[in-house]
Amino acid sequence: MPTYNKLVRDRIPEIIEKTGKKFTISLLNDEQYITELKKKSFEELEEYMSTTTHEDVLEELADVLEIIHALAICHGSSIEEVEKIRERKAKDRGGFQEKIFLVEVEDD
Q: What does the alpha-carbon distance between residue 55 and residue 52 come to, in Å, rounded to a whole number?
């Protein structure tokens, strides 16, 4: 039986059960959950980095966004609050649409 030891989406046990396979799960406490969400964020970003098709890019970005939603809730906030902060930062410091690559800044 393969061992995964990783956070999975809420309906994965139900999906596995429908295949007739046996599985083992455990529920995480809040501290463990945040730790596993952080690990999952790296996993999803790595999957995004290895994509080669437009469809796969969008699938992986959706997974990254799902993790961000969950992390916002874990930290007592919401995706809407995160979006407000993102908008403020974009207004104050800009976004990344202009593709600016900083090479160096002269020291005083």
A: 9
